[in-house]
């Protein structure tokens, strides 16, 4: 399997190179050069597989011969051994026509763990294969940073530095980042906003000498591994629900921000999973809903909501969808993206809008409706939804129920967003893992919000680590730790 850019400006690259490249060098996004097609016979054969084995079958289609199967299997098993549920992503029946796919049983209680636990191990593997240390630099407004740190903490050959805006992430998110004591993790709380953090990252990645000296890698949702790892649970949930519901038509309702999660479902469909409908659920930040309904992709004013992980204006994976919408026509995609950069919005002609509406149904859920859904679902079923999942459930309800079953993706545990739960007039007890965070010492370092200040900290942190002897030592130590337990 090779990977190409949505803008057509790079020679095809293999899996490893694609992972390391992150954003394609021509500014586009990487996509597989073809999508494997799965027959209904294959699906029936895979029905009985565990989550891990299903991931192995699907993921190996995309790694090709670059990772030996036994190594990949070990990596996948290690990645999902950190989950608290034996099924990794279990489904739960809420009513005859509504199921939840619980994606929050990983270390940080949000769905991003599903992909980032695996990406952490992929990075570590690549480090060993290439004999170089991988330095990850990212900015977070909450979930991604905690999850990325959990994915690489203690892993030989990988260092991670996460910037976050001081005092502007939730307490639980801050604790999940700052209570990690592993030497390969550096958290920097910057004296500024999330936008400042992102600007600094852009500047540092833009400094070619700095980037190359330290082999900087990104962890944001444009990395192709994150999408590929998320395909599995659409298949897994489909198998579990059709076991109970026979040949029912299956829709998925997906809380959507950067469009990574929903896009994985879209790929699952294109690979042959019989998905009846994909519902794009979001909050008051409704750029994608307006796109599906009106054909115009135009950022609007930022709205603060109860589901902050979906408070985004520009969906970073959107370009990948345009690529498929236009039949892999890279010229068309480049043209649209140039238009978007020049005028700040883009339009698709009405003939193409029909196809968009055939691919997705879209709903924007208002703040009040989100809290109402949390309250109502709790009253009706005793199940406490987090505010992101509540948007998916509300959107599923808005579709009516024409004799089918909807699987709503539950992307976070409600304990991560207790503020919204309290506003809904409900109380919860925290899982012990989250409660315990409050008693751990925090390792918090403050920094001014300038790229000079951050570059200085990175030089210290990454410093000696670029040398090969250091890497060998780490790998040996990692090996010893594995053997001893
Ligand atoms: C990141 C996130 C989302 C949005 O996922 P995308 O892939 O960005 O669309 C939804 N819910 C939660 C809890 C998240 O952390």
Structure notes:
The chain is an alpha/beta fold. Helices cover 49% and strands 14% of the residues. It contains 21 helices and 15 strands. The strands form four sheets. The chain has a six-stranded mixed β-sheet, with helices on both faces. Strands 8-5-6-7-15 form a five-stranded parallel β-sheet, sandwiched between helices. It has a two-stranded antiparallel sheet with strand order 1-2. The protein is globular. The model has no long low-confidence stretch (mean pLDDT 92). Residues 110-112, 143, 221, 255-262, 309-310, 388, 411-412 line the site of pyridoxal-5'-phosphate.
Helix content: 40-55%
> What portion of the residues fall into strands of 2 or more residues?
5-15%
CATH topology: Rossmann fold
* Strand order in the sheet with the most strands: 3-4-14-9-10-13
Alpha-carbon distance between the termini?
A: 35 Å
Q: What is the class in the CATH system?
A: Alpha Beta
Question: What global shape is seen?
Answer: globular
Largest sheet composition: 6 strands, mixed
Give the rounded overall mean pLDDT.
92
Total DSSP E strands: 15
Attached small molecules? pyridoxal-5'-phosphate
Our Rg estimate from Cα atoms comes to 22 Å
Discrete helix count: 21
The SS-based structural class is alpha/beta
Count of discrete domains:
1
CATH architecture: 3-Layer(aba) Sandwich
Unreliable runs, pLDDT <50, ≥5 residues? none
């Amino acid at each position: 399997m090779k990977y190409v850019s949505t803008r057509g400006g790079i020679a095809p690259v293999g899996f490893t190179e694609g992972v390391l490249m992150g954003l394609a060098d021509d500014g586009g996004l990487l996509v597989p050069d073809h999508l494997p097609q799965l027959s209904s016979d294959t699906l029936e054969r895979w029905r009985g597989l565990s989550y891990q084995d299903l991931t192995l079958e699907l993921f190996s289609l995309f790694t090709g011969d670059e990772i030996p199967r036994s190594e990949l299997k070990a990596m996948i098993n290690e990645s999902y051994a950190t989950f608290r549920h034996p099924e990794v992503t279990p489904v739960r029946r809420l009513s005859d026509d509504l199921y939840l796919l619980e994606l929050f049983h990983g270390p940080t209680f949000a769905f991003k763990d599903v992909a980032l636990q695996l990406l952490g191990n992929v990075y570590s593997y690549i480090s060993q294969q290439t004999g170089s240390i991988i330095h990850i630099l990212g900015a977070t407004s909450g979930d991604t940073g905690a999850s990325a740190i959990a994915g690489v903490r203690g892993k030989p050959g990988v260092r991670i530095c996460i910037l976050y805006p001081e005092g502007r992430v939730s307490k639980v998110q801050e604790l999940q980042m700052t209570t990690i004591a592993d030497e390969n993790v550096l958290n920097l709380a910057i004296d500024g906003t999330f936008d400042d953090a992102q600007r600094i990252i852009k500047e540092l990645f833009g400094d070619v000498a700095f980037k190359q000296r330290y082999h900087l890698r990104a962890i944001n949702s444009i990395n192709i591994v994150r999408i590929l790892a998320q395909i599995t649970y659409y298949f897994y949930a489909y198998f579990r629900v059709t076991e109970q519901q026979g040949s029912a038509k299956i829709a998925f309702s997906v809380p959507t921000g950067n469009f990574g999660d929903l896009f994985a479902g879209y790929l699952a469909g294109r690979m042959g999973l019989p998905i009846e409908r994909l519902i794009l659920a979001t909050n008051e930040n409704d750029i994608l809903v307006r796109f599906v309904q009106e054909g115009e992709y135009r950022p609007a004013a930022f709205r603060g909501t109860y589901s902050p992980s979906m408070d985004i204006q520009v969906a970073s994976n959107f370009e990948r969808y345009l690529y498929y919408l236009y039949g892999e026509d890279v010229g068309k995609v480049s043209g649209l993206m140039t238009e978007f950069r020049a005028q700040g919005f883009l339009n698709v002609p009405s003939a193409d809008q029909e196809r968009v509406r055939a691919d997705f149904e879209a709903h924007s859920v208002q703040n009040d409706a989100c809290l109402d859904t949390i309250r109502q679902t709790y009253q009706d079923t005793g199940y406490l939804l987090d505010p992101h999942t509540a948007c998916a459930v509300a959107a599923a309800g808005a579709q009516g129920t024409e004799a089918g079953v909807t699987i709503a993706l539950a992307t976070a545990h409600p304990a991560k967003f207790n503020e919204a739960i309290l506003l809904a007039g409900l109380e919860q007890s925290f899982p012990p893992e989250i409660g315990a965070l409050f008693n751990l010492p925090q390792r918090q370092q403050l920094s001014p919000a300038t790229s000079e200040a951050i570059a200085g900290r990175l030089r210290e942190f990454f410093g000696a680590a670029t040398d090969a002897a250091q890497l060998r030592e780490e790998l040996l130590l990692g090996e010893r730790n594995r053997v001893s337990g």
